[in-house]
Amino acid sequence: MGKSVQDKASQLQYLTNRFQILSQVVESIDSTDAEAEDLDRLLQMMKDLEGKVERFKKDWEAEG
To answer: Where on the tree of life does the source sit, at the highest rank (predicted)?
Structure first.
């Protein structure tokens, strides 16, 4: 398992990396053979990312 991401700079770097991965996945989808499962995978990735953003937001508010 990866190490914990606790400081703001590390959290922002984590999000940046995850957004880049998401972007690469979107770019890799071929429209001629894409399926509904591809969209399901994208939705799950976005939900996972949203969860991290919410977690980091709580962390930042607690530091307030």
So the answer is: Bacteria
pTM value?
0.84
pLDDT in tens, 16-53: 999 999 999 999 999 999 999 999 999 999 999 999 99
- Cβ proximity of 14 and 52 under 8 Å: yes
User: Could you give the residue ranges of the DSSP H alpha helices within the chain?
Assistant: 8-28, 36-63
Q: What phi and psi values does residue 4 have, to the nearest 5 degrees?
A: -70, 145
For the CA atoms of 11, 27, 39, 58, the dihedral, rounded to the nearest 10 degrees, stands at: 10
- Give the C-alpha separation, 47 to 54, whole Å: 10
CA dihedral 27, 39, 1, 13 (to 10 degrees): 50
